[in-house]
Batch of 3 targets.
Target 1
Amino acid sequence: MASQIMIPAFSELTRVFARIGCLSFGGPAGQIALMHRELVEERKWIGEEQYLHALNFCHLLPGPEAQQLATWIGWRLHGVKGGLVAGLLFVIPGALVILTLSILYAYAANLSWFAALFLGMKSAVLAIVVQALIRIGGRALNTRFKQIMSVAAFVALFFFNLPFPLIVLGAGFIGIVTAKILPEYLGIKAGNAAPVATARPWGKTAQTIALWLAIWVAPMIVVLLTVGQDHVLWKIGSFFSQLAIVTFGGAYAVLAYMAQEAVQGFGWLSAGEMADGLGLAETTPGPLIMVTQFVGFLAAYRAPEPFTPLIAGLIGAGLTTWVTFAPCFLWIFTFAPWIERLENAVWLKGGLSTLTAAVVGVIANLTIWFALHLLFAQVSEQYAGAIRLYIPELDSFNPSAVLLSIMAAILIFRLKWNVIKTLAVTSLTGLALGFIG
C-alpha cells in the first residue's frame, strides 16, 4: 500500500547506505537480498513491487545490477543527490579495502608463502565460478534456442577467439530480431503490453546524458593532455570504459572479457593473478566488478613512468574505478524516468534474454580457462587454421591445486558453505601445503 511507504530523512538514508556498503558481501545475490531486507521488509522505504520492478530494470543495463539498484533507490527517495550517496556508499568501502589488498599483493607477490596462500584462494575461485555457471545457466537456459546461443558463444570464444563485445552485441541483436518474429523461442509470451501513460522527459534526459558523459570522460582528457595515448593509463581508461558499456551478465562475464584482453592482449597480468584478483574481490564488500580496480592497479604499477610504481598504481586504480562506475550513474539517472516504458518493451526483453544466454557460454569459457591455468603451470596456445587450442604442459601439473579444488567443491556444493568461509579454509590449507612442500 502506498500509505505504508516511509520516506526517510536524507541523513538517515546516508547512514543506512553506509551500513549496507560495509556489509554487502556475497556477490549480487547476497547484496540484493540485504537491501531487500533492510529497505523493503524492515524500513518500508520501497514497496515490494517497486523493488522488483527496479531490479528487473537494472538487469537490462550493463554493469553491476546491485550497485545500480542501490543508486535507483536513492534516486527514488531523494533525487539525484540520493542516488549519488546510495551508489557511492555501495562502492567506496569495498574500493578502499581492495585497493589496500592490491598494494599488499603487489609488494608480496614474489614471496613463496604468499603464492601458497593464493593457490588455495584460486582453487576456491574455480569452485565459485562453476557454481555461478550452474546457477546462471539453470535460470537463463530455459529454451532450446537459448541453449544453442550459449553453446555458440562458448565455441566462438574458446575455439575461435572472437572478441567479447562482438559476441555480446551480436547476441543482443539476435534476441531483438527473434523477439519480433519468434518470441516463443525465447520463452516470451506473445501479446501487447499495456500502454504506459508516463511523460517522455526528452529534455531532461538529454541534459543528463551530456552531464554524465562529461563526468565520465573528464579524467581521460587529463590523461591525454599529460601523458598521452601511448601511456598505460590511457590504455587502462580506454579499456575499462569499453568494458563498462558491453559487460552484461555480471562480474563473471567481466572476468571472461578481462582474461581475454588484460591477460592475453595487453599482458598486464597473468591468468593466475586474475584468479587472485577475483579471490580478493570475493572477500570484500561491494560489487564483484571491483576486481577491475585490482587489474588497473597492477597494470599501472608495472609500467609506472614517469611516476613511482605506487603512485602510478594508485592513479591506475582510481582511473579504473572512475570509468567503471561513472557509467552506472549515467545509466540510472538517464533511464530511471523511463523505467515503466522500458519494462514493457518486448524487443528489449528479447535482447536481454538472448544476451544472458550467451553470457552462460562466456562463463563456461572462463571456467575451463581458469581450470587449465590453475591445474597446470604452463599452458600454450596453438592454432589449427582458425581454431585455437589450449595445450597444457603435462610436466607442469600441480597436484596441490587438484586437492584444494576438490576441497573447495566439497565445501561449496556438498556442505553449502558460503564464499568467505570457503576462501578462508582453502587459503589456509594452501599455506599449510606450501610449508609442507
Note: The chain has a mean pLDDT of 88.
Target 2
Amino acid sequence: MQEKLIKLAELLLVNWNVNVQSVEVIQGGQMALVWKFMTDEGPKCLKRIHRPEKKALFSIHAQDYLAKKGMRVPGIIPNKDGSLYTKHGPFLFVVYEWIEGRPFNLTVPEDLHWIMKGLADYHTESIGYTPPPAAPVFTKLGKWPKHYIKRCQQMETWKLIAQKSPDDPFCHLYLKEIDPFIASGRETLKKLQESHYPEWVRQCKKQPNLCHQDYGTGNTLLSENQIWIIDLDTTTFDLPIRDLRKVIIPLMGDSGTWNQALFDHMLASYEEGAPLTPEQKQVMYIDMLFPYELYETASERFGRKNEIMPEELMAAFEYENRKTEQLSQFL
C-alpha cells in the first residue's frame, strides 16, 4: 500500500513545477491522504482533499485568501496551469508549504493561551473572504435550531433501539436517565430562539467570518514562536462561538468536570484578540447548555456501534449536570 501511495504521489506531482527528491507517506487512511516530499527548496506537502468537490473549493480558496493576507496558514503552491489544485478521479489534490513545528499541550496554560489567541486571529482575519463563483457558499449561519432539533430527535430514536435490549446495562441506563436531557435540549432551543442569536446571524451574514470546525491540537503547530493553523478542509461561515464551544466543551468533558478557572483562562485568551459583547457571550452560554458530550457518547454506541461501557455514559450524564449548573449562573 505504501508503494502504491508513493507512486500515486509521483504521478500527481508532475503537475507542479517542483524538483521532487523523495516522497514519504504521512497519512494513508481512508479519510485523508497526506504526503511529505522533499525538493531543492525544502519540504512540501501534497494532500488529497477528502470532501465533495464544491465544498473542497470553498476551503481551498479560503486558505489561499488567508495565506496571501498574511495569516499563519500554509500557503498553497499553484500547479503548472496556475490552478490551486489538480483533479484526479473524483478528488482534488493540493500542494502546500510544509510547516515544521510542535503540537500544543492543552494541559499547559501557555499553550492554551496560544491556541485561543490563534483561534481569535482566524476569526478576525477571515472576515472579507468571498468564495469564487465556482464554489458555492458553505455556511452554517442560522442553522443551529435545525441542528438542535435533529439531535433531540436522534436521542429519541436511540430510545427505541435501547428498548430492544432492556437487559443491556448501557441501554438500561440510557432509558432510565435520558428524558430530562432531551427536554433540556429542547429548552435550549427555545432559549436560543429568544436570544440575540437571530440578530447576530443577520449581522454576521453581512460580513461573515470563517469557523474552522475542527480546531485543536491536531490542527495547530507552534513554529518559530508563532501559531500555525492547518487542515482547513471543513471551514465554513458561522458565528465564531461555534469554534469556541467545539474547543472548550470537549476539553472540559475529557476531565469529567467543569473547571471554571480553565474556562476563564481560555475565554480571556480568546478575547485578547476578539472581544465578545455580553449579548454574544449569552448566546455562547446557551449553546454550551446543549448536551453535546452526552450526545456524542450515545452516538458512539448507537450510531457508530462501538462498545461503550455504561460507566462512560454515567460520567457523561454527571458532566452535563455539572455543566448546566455552572452555565445557569451566567444566564
Note: The chain has a mean pLDDT of 96.
Target 3
Amino acid sequence: MYQPVLKLSDYLSVNAPPFFNILQIGAGGNGGYLVQRLAKLLYGLSSQKESFCFHYQIVDGDRVEESNLIRQPFIDLDLNKPKAQVLAERYDNAYEIPIFYKSEYIESSNDIADLINMNRQYIVPKIPILLGCVDNNATRQIMHEAFQKSHTIIYIDSGIDSVDQEGNADSGYSGQVVCGVKIKGKELLAPVGTIYSNILEDKDSRLPTQACGEQVVYYPQRMQTNELAALVMTSYLNTLLHDEEIVSHYTNFNAKTMLTRPVYITKEQLAK
C-alpha cells in the first residue's frame, strides 16, 4: 500500500543541501529530554554527512528548581541555574557540537522571527524548524502566530496531559506531537493550534512574564510521558533531518499503554 510522504525536495527547487535552523522553545520536561536525543542525533548526522548544516538554539527563561529534579533531566549541581544554559553547555561539551541558548522567555511572535532570522549569513535554502516544548497555551498561541506569519517553516509541537489532582491513576499519560508545515507561503500541514482548537481558544493561559502578581499554575506531569513525547519528536526530526521527509501529520500517544497512533499525511494534503 502506497503511503504518501512529504519530501522537501518536491517543494524546494534547489540543488544545495538545506541549512536546518532549529529553534527550541522550552527546556523543561519534554524539552529537556528532547535536547538529550536531538543533540546525539545532530552529532551523528554531522559525523556521517559532510554537507549536513544546522544551527541549534534553546530558549527558556526558567531556572532549575528543586521540584524539577524529580522528573526533569537535571541534578543537584544545576539548581538555580538557567535550564537552557545547563542543557546547551552539557550536550555541547558531550558531543562537541555547537548548541546555543537564550535564557529568556518568548513574549511575541517577533521574538521568534528575530531568532530565526539571525542566521541570514548562511546559504539558502534555510529551513526554519520551530520546536514547541512548553506547558502553556499562551506561548503556543505565539508560536501559532509565528507560523502564520512565516513564509517557510516547520513547526513541531509536543503537548501532554497533566496529572489529575482528583487522584485518577490513569491521568497524565496521554499526549500528542503535531507537525505543521508551511513552504513558500503555502500551508501543507496544519499546525497544532488548528488541529486542537482549544489551544487558540484558551483565554486563561498566561505567559510566565504576564503573571502580574498572580501565581502561575503549573500542573504536575509524569516523567515517562515527558520522555515519550521527546522520543516521538525525535522520530519526526530523524526522518526530517536525515531523509528530508515527513511521514505523518501528527501522533497521539499514551505512556502507560505504550500506544502510539500516527495520523499519516494524505494525498489531498500533498496536492496543495
Note: Residues 212-216 have pLDDT under 50 and may be disordered.
